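Problem statement: downstream parser choked on a complex file, so we are re-checking the raw output for the iron/sulfur cluster run. The parser issue turned out to be on our end (a line-ending mismatch), but while we're here, posting the original submission so the record is complete.
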Amino acid sequence: MADDLVMVEIRPSALARVSACPGSHALCAWLPRDDAPRPAADRGTAIHAALQALSLGQHELACERVAALDESAREGIVWTLRALAEAVSIDGDAMMLVEAEADCGLVADGLTTGHMDLAFVAPWRDGVAIDYKTGQGAHVAPARNNLQTAAYAVALARRYDLAAVQVVIAYVDRRRLDIADLDLAALERAADRIRAVVDAARQPWAPLRTGPHCCWCPALATCPAAIGTVADAIGGAAPTPAALDRAEVARQWAGAVQQAAHGMLMAGGTVPGWRLRERAGRRRWAAGVTPGDVADAARRAGKPVSVADVEAPAAPISPAQLDQIIGRSRAVREALDGMVDRSAPSLTLERAKEQTT
Ligand code: SF4
């Protein structure tokens, strides 16, 4: 059984976790497919889909997809496209590949095909591989030694006979580009490293190692190594660096257990004593509302504020922050009528109240 599981192919996007914890490959391979909703992942997918339509020049589809995003995502996309245009130089005769397959089997036996968000290739010369990241991108390795993007770069180099590949990790939400130029020698070193990671993970009884990478692991809620680390953390310790590392794994494990319970309840199952409760979506300014509009509305409500008060350095303050300045009287609510939208409601996990007789 363990032998069969380790032979399952590894996704390039799992290389970082598998490199830090070789045993996680077999442990994750037997997990049933988890279809629980993940709002952050869904948002990331929607941002990728919008960028894909923009790259392909599918104007109508791109407008539709961009319009469906939150404001911060829209601004992140504009920033990313501008930054890429300034930072990445692409020859006029280069081919553009959007969401193209990267045949990572060319890098190491046992790796699945990956999908590059965007690439440019001048065959027999050089190429660029661009990978978009959304959210905070915590624990993503730098472009110069990122295994996932290196796998794409090596696959590109081998497929098109390239002498160099520029790897770009574009952090859409953080508004940051991380760029590394990999020449032939660097690509070969990356390929050796990737093969070693895949080989180690496909050994029977490869070791489990906890660490910050556990936050990406689908097996976290049930992993024996993580549970052992939680038990050690609960055992009590002075706030040493090692104890803080264990506490971090314990925090991530607790989140994974809550996520698993959330998924079970969403799928119609039960978790005795717990329920999902709908929470109203977050308030945000409707499209087109400016700091001047907000200041005018506050004045109409008899609570004058200046435009400078409602205009933060990067963006207008949120409706919740305005509440803190001028309160939430009926006059304020009436003055702001039509200026505030709500994001979709969410379901949060909470203790079911006990029935009292
Ligand atoms: S939770 Fe952490 S230790 Fe356990 S399999 Fe996943 S990565 Fe490895």
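For whoever reads this later: The chain has a mean pLDDT of 88.
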